Amino acid sequence: MIEPGFCKGVIPVAAKNKVDVRIAGKDYTLVGIETDEYIQRVGLYIDKKMNEITRTNSKLSTSMVAVLTAINVADDYFKAHENESILKKELKRIQEELEKLKAENRSLEEERGLLTGKCTSLQLELAKREAELNEVRNSFDKVSKFME
Questions:
Q1: Phi, psi (5° rounding) for residue 4?
Q2: Any bridge partners for residue 18, and if so which?
C-alpha cells in the first residue's frame, strides 16, 4: 500500500521506500513497501489520468479533477476485475476441457495398445496360415507330380 510521505504505518520506516513523484504539476513524496519503480508507475498513471481530465476541461478545480480521476481509476479497476473474472472462468473451462482430452487420449492410447497387440496376434496367425498353406501346396505339388 502506498501512503503519503507524512503518514506513519505499522511497518518499520526502514522497510519502506520513499519516492518523489510529480502528479498534476505538484511534487509528492509517496511511501510504500513496493519497489521504487512500482510507486513511480502508479504516480505516472495517476498523473496521466489527471492530465487527460484537465485537457478535456481546463476550468475544473484540482479537487474536481482528483475526484474524476478517482472515478476513472475505480472504473478501470472494476473493468479489470471483471475481465479477470471472465478470464478465470475461461481458464477453468479450458483446464476442464484439457482434462477431458487427456482422459480421452489415455483411453485411446489403451485402445491403441490393445489393437496393436491384436494386430500382432493376427499377423502371427496369418504367418502360420501362410506356412500351412505353403505346406499344403508343396504336398499337392508332390502328389500332382507323383500322379503324372
A1: -65, 155
A2: 31
DSSP 1: -
Percent of the chain with pLDDT over 90: 80
Which one-letter DSSP state was computed for residue 13?
A: G
pLDDT of residue 142: 81
Question: How far, in Å, CA of 120 to CA of 118, rounded?
Answer: 5
Instruction: Answer yes or no: are the C-beta atoms of 24 and 62 closer than 8 Å.
Output: yes
**Reported pTM:** 0.62
Residue 146 C-alpha cell reads as 507323383
Q: Where are the beta strands (DSSP E) in 17-138?
A: 17-23, 26-32
Q: Averaged over 3-12, what is the pLDDT?
A: 52
Q: How many other CB atoms are found less than 10 A from the CB of residue 79?
A: 10
